[in-house]
From TrEMBL, chain A:
Keywords: Nucleus, Transcription, Transcription regulation. This is Transcription initiation factor TFIID subunit 8. It holds the Pfam family Bromo_TP. GO terms for cellular component: transcription factor TFIID complex. It is found in: Nucleus. It comes from Sesamum indicum. GO terms for molecular function: protein heterodimerization activity. The gene is LOC105167230. Residues 24-100 form the Bromodomain associated domain. SMART domains: BTP.
UniProtKB/TrEMBL annotation, chain B:
It holds the Pfam family TAF10. TAFs are components of the transcription factor IID (TFIID) complex that is essential for mediating regulation of RNA polymerase transcription. It is found in: Nucleus. It comes from Sesamum alatum. This is Transcription initiation factor TFIID subunit 10. Its main location: nucleus. Belongs to the TAF10 family. GO terms for molecular function: promoter-specific chromatin binding; RNA polymerase II general transcription initiation factor activity.
Length: 262, 139
């Protein structure tokens, strides 16, 4: 046999046959099946192993490229979650190599009329849908992915290691993220709108009272003693540059407008 | 009057586009792409793309499916063109060689148009019987 039959739908075993399959290998294998299905739908009878693996690799890279470009687009708009315009921008960036109608005035037109989206609409409308060959197994934990959650560091500091879940893009060698403790947890829960307004008003009243109390206090003075600063001004003949020498500074809080001696 | 009508046209066009897009996104809820949602979510999460909307995940799957289908179609054309050139010499093997098989040679030619340069060996022993076909031909 020259090639592998695309109808072979069972997942191939691990190549070296040692140890359990890792998460990346697992996802790669599933992608391989999906790519084989797409090739079969196009009209291929079989495929070389190397060609199928190359195409699978390109598929995974394409998916990650869409993700990275979309995330970059949303981050540049100061958002963490991506939306449809981000996706369209990412797709147009990726499709710019082949070109598409309207590429010359990219970004100036409305994104909704993008030719890339129109192509996808046609694909969904006219091409038969080919569901994945087998139902996916339920979510499983991998050996390497045992830490795949926001792990709480059990040491002295409350810190989070973000190397799993939706934080998969954060490299695991980065230091842990410190926990931000929320001071008033009451606000976190749902509060009725009227109650919330009342609470805000109370806070404002408290602040106003403290400001007024401080202003009315007669003994209100600037705390701390100010130090003395001396400067000497003269013309340096060597380099023909006017120099200002700071001779002596007393105290840390040397301010402007103090006594200056020539 | 003319000016008003010319101003209204793009508004109506945009409205139609919005309606078509909304309808398209709604139709994605019933559409099952070949690439499963979980797989797309895995790769998107790996690259930092956060979106809880299933429709967008499916849109990514559809876009990837389209890309791969385009590449495979190009490779298929390459394969057909190559076979039609070879078969002229040996018509007796026409039936045997008619099966279309995705090869590295066709794939690399197809991918060149998509900005991917695939470097592969001139001869690559894919399977133990990879070289047998050529040897039998020489005999």
């Amino acid at each position: 046999m020259r090639g592998t039959s695309l109808r072979q739908k069972q997942l191939p075993p691990r190549l070296d046959g040692v140890g359990p399959i890792s998460e990346s290998e697992f996802s790669f294998t599933i992608t391989r099946v999906a790519v084989a299905q797409i090739c079969h739908s196009v009209g291929f009878y079989g495929a070389q192993n190397s060609a199928l693996e190359a195409l699978t690799d390109i598929t995974t890279r394409y998916l990650e490229a869409i993700g990275k470009l979309g995330a970059a687009s949303s981050n540049s708009d100061r958002r963490t979650q991506s939306n449809l315009p981000d996706f369209i921008v990412a797709l147009e960036d990726l499709a710019s190599i082949q070109g598409f109608p309207g590429l010359s005035d990219i970004r100036s037109h409305s994104l909704w009329t993008s030719a890339v989206i129109n192509d996808l609409m046609k694909l969904v409308k006219y091409r038969d849908e080919i569901p994945f060959a087998q139902p996916l197994p339920p979510k499983r934990s991998f050996v390497q992915g045992a830490k795949r959650k926001l792990l709480k560091h059990t040491g002295d500091n409350k810190r989070l290691y973000c190397n799993g879940g939706s934080w998969r893009h954060v490299p695991s060698w980065l230091p842990p993220v410190p926990v931000v403790e929320e001071k008033d947890k009451e606000q976190k829960g749902e509060v009725k709108w009227e109650c919330w307004e009342e609470r805000e008003e109370e806070k404002w009243d408290c602040r106003r009272e403290t400001v007024e109390r401080e202003c009315n206090n007669e003994n209100f003075q600037v705390s701390g003693k100010r130090g003395k600063v001396r400067f000497r001004m003269g013309v340096g003949l060597d380099n023909k540059v006017v120099r200002v020498r700071n001779l002596r500074v007393k105290g840390v809080t040397a301010g402007i407008g103090k006594r200056v001696n020539n | 009057m003319n000016g008003q009508s010319s101003q209204q046209q793009p508004k109506d066009g945009r409205h139609d586009d919005d309606a078509a897009l909304t309808e398209f996104l709604a139709s994605l809820m019933d559409y099952t792409p070949t690439i499963p949602d979980e797989l797309v979510e895995h790769y998107l999460a790996k690259s930092g793309f956060q979106c809880p909307d299933v429709r967008l995940t499916r849109l990514v799957a559809v876009a990837t499916q389209k890309f791969i289908a385009d590449v495979a179609t190009d490779a298929l054309q390459q394969c057909k063109a190559r076979q039609s050139a070879v078969i002229k010499d040996k018509r007796d093997k026409q039936q045997k060689d008619k099966r279309l098989i995705l090869t590295m040679e066709d794939l690399s030619k197809a991918l060149r148009e998509y900005g991917v340069n695939v470097k592969h060996q001139e001869y690559f022993a894919d399977s133990p019987s990879a070289g047998l076909d050529a040897a039998s031909r020489e005999e």
